[in-house]
Specification:
By secondary structure, the chain is mainly alpha-helical. The chain is built from 6 helices and no strands. Helix 2 packs antiparallel against helix 6 (111-138) and helix 4 packs antiparallel against helix 6. This is DUF2269 family protein.
Amino acid sequence: MYPWIVFIHSVSAMVSIGPFFVLIPMLRKLQTAEGELKSSYLDSFHFVVRLSKHAGHVLVFSGLLLMWLGRWPWTTPYIAGTFVVLFASLFFMARAFSPTIRKLRQPENDHPALLRKLRRSLYLYLFVLFVMLWLMMMKPLLW
């Protein structure tokens, strides 16, 4: 059972990180997109954020199962560090993407500034995801 949960945990990590890379070239196209095309790009952004959120739920649940079955204590440095980064990223993700995407759908807002904010949020969130991935893969002794 444990190897299957490790597999599910790994796949959910890939699904929660991978789709964000599709958004990088889409950001460039969003700068000049109009009408239906712009709406389609924003729908894609929204879908990736939701997919990542739900894959993150599977990731956390499977991680907790692995901790329980493997008898890993909460005080293990890389586990505690990952949860600290995870909770910080939850607040970040809730405020970074969906409100900006909603504002981009409205014609009266400053689109170049919102696209810069969306780009910055995307790169920052990818960095946070990679920090969590690094903690889980490298298992550093933080204390």
